[in-house]
Design brief:
By secondary structure, the protein is of the alpha/beta class. The chain is built from 12 helices and 8 strands.
């Protein structure tokens, strides 16, 4: 049975899609079978993984409407299998009003769970029926956090939602960890937010991940190519960070970083003063 992981935060702009895509790519590179579920009506995860959630094809919206099963919407990409989303999903909140609507995704994932090692869910930046479905289906939550005061406030609000879901819909839900994203160690505010995040993590019975994801232009470029960071730039610093984060998530020993060998450098254009002395001698 697959381990189901939801990447979530009620605040937008914290990098949920980037984290979800990066972890998917790393797990696939480890030889794991991975399914990515795009629950954001903007369809950013589908785009980032090189799959177009066009309105002509079935998407996760059709699954929630009961028109098709999850099997019918899964598409293959270079990185992993993807259940796509598009803007139609934004109407799900109003259209889904039947009893048991909180468990639609959980019931559908039971149909495919045996085919995968890991299933990752990218959630929308709001508390909605889609988010509740993700929490009700998940084993683990990963909470990306940008080191800003407003991001920390959103984390406190999310805590209450998690407690409510655990009480009513999913007693086994576990917060795997809080991830500091877009990390800048030179800022004092970053350190302060990190300390406060540790306090919230204790209240959620979890930890702040040791691995931090630093700001990177490479991470911003990868989605434009429809690739994860480990496929787009495998030797980059960001790819290394995501490999370490993925190992931390699944409880595997982190790969050792290769030490940079010191080169001899360019030959000097002019001799050093001591070289003149050796020439005279």
């Amino acid at each position: 049975m697959a381990k189901i992981i939801a990447v979530t935060n009620q605040k937008g702009g914290v990098g949920k899609t980037t984290v979800c895509a990066g972890v998917c790519g790393c797990l696939t590179a480890m030889g794991k079978s991975v399914l990515a579920i795009d629950l954001d009506p903007q369809g950013n995860l589908s785009f980032s993984l090189g799959v177009d959630g066009s309105e002509d094809a079935y998407t996760i919206y059709n699954v929630f409407k009961g028109e098709v099963d999850l099997y019918d919407v899964i598409r293959h990409s270079e990185s992993c299998d993807v259940a796509c989303s598009n803007i139609q999903l934004s109407g799900a909140e109003l259209e889904l009003n039947s009893i048991g609507r909180e468990h639609i995704l959980r019931d559908q994932l039971e149909l495919v769970s045996a085919d995968y090692d890991y299933i990752l869910i990218d959630t929308p930046p709001a508390l909605s029926i889609l988010t509740i479905n993700a929490y009700a289906a998940a084993n683990w939550l990963i909470i990306p956090l940008v080191p800003e005061i407003l991001g920390l406030q959103g984390l406190s609000q999310l805590k209450e939602t998690i407690f409510a879901v655990k009480k009513y819909y999913n007693h086994n839900l576990e917060v795997r960890g809080i991830l500091i994203n877009q990390y800048n160690p030179r800022l004092i505010l970053t350190k302060e937010v990190e300390e406060l995040a540790t306090i919230v993590a204790e209240q959620l019975d979890t930890d702040v991940f040791e691995t931090k994801i630093l700001k990177s232009v490479t991470l911003a470029e990868a989605p434009a190519h429809g690739k994860t960071i480990v496929d787009y730039m495998p030797r980059s610093r960001s790819a290394t960070e995501f490999r370490e984060l993925t190992c931390e998530i699944i409880g595997q020993e982190k790969p050792k970083r290769e030490e940079k060998k010191l080169g001899r450098g360019r030959p000097r254009k002019y001799p050093r003063p001591e070289d003149y002395l050796s020439i005279d001698n």
